[in-house]
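User: Fold this, then the next.

Assistant: Folding the first:
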Amino acid sequence: MVSIGSAMAMVKTFTQNASRSVGVFLKGEMMKIDKNVPIPSKGHKGKNDFVSEMKVGDSFLVPDSHAKDNMRFAFRYRGLKCIVRKVPEGYRIWRSE
């Protein structure tokens, strides 16, 4: 636990150093804050990103209801609509609209 006296000393030290550099305390150490550093892209695609590339009327087959539910969520998550029908081989999913 930090005493009030040592906390005040830390604030005073931080205030004195703030005029020299911008920073924050992390476990008692001064951390430098960088400004205007661009955020890099993710660099990888998710396993279901292919649904965004589908055209209206395109379809694919999934083997079971678990895969069907996952793919319906993938469409919904991306704001897309799909139609699902049970077929002898499993479930066929079409992109609609």
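Now the next one, as you asked:
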Amino acid sequence: MKNVKLTKTLLIIAIVVLATVAFAAEEAAAGGASFAAIGKGLAIGLGLLGTGMAQSAIGAAAVGAVAEDRRNFGTALIFFLIPETLAIFGLAFSFLIN
């Protein structure tokens, strides 16, 4: 089961990287800076991929904790939102890349 999850994760990362390179090649053909586009795409894409992977595990645990005791809702919500900072940082860093 762990090999299947690892294979899926690596496949998603490969798709993100290849799509980023394809968009960068398209922008380079239009006269833009291709490496900046690759960096921007990777910053956003991998940040969102990490956020999704983290929130999937945290979300399941949070639902279980809240189902057990409703007072855990605030703590579960905070822990569920912490990985979202990866997406925000990825977006912020993509604006910093020229």
